Amino acid sequence: MEIAAVLGLEPFERFVYAMTVLERYSDQECSFLLGCARRDVLAARSRALQQIGSVIELQRQQPLANPKKPIFDKRCGSALELVFDDV
């Protein structure tokens, strides 16, 4: 998963996502700890998952603006090591 997609969430959605998906708190536990209704937890997680999915899908659809070209170590005369040119 892309960290940037998670970091792009609103604070409440990010916190609910971390608690329910990453830490595996139940919806009831999460609502109790956050002092909100269970439906708020469900809605926040749903929004978070939709946004993360949208960001990841958008990244998959967009070709890389500057793809790195693979180059091979010419001294060996074979493709023993693949090196990416950062320039």
In short:
The protein has 87 residues and is mostly helical.
Low-confidence stretches: 76-87
Under the CATH scheme, the architecture is Orthogonal Bundle
Helix content: 55-70%
Question: How is the main sheet built?
Answer: 2 strands, antiparallel
Number of strands: 2
CATH topology descriptor: Arc Repressor Mutant, subunit A
**Multimeric organization:** single chain
| CATH class descriptor name | Mainly Alpha
Shape: elongated
Strand residue content: 5-15%
The tally of structural domains comes to 1
The arrangement of helices and strands along the chain is: HHHHEE
Amino- and carboxy-terminal Cα gap? 27 Å
> What is the average per-residue confidence, as pLDDT, rounded to a whole number?
78
Number of helices: 4
The CATH homologous superfamily corresponds to Winged helix-like DNA-binding domain superfamily/Winged helix DNA-binding domain
Structural class: mainly alpha
Spatial strand order of the main sheet: 1-2
What is the gyration radius calculated from CA atoms? 21 Å
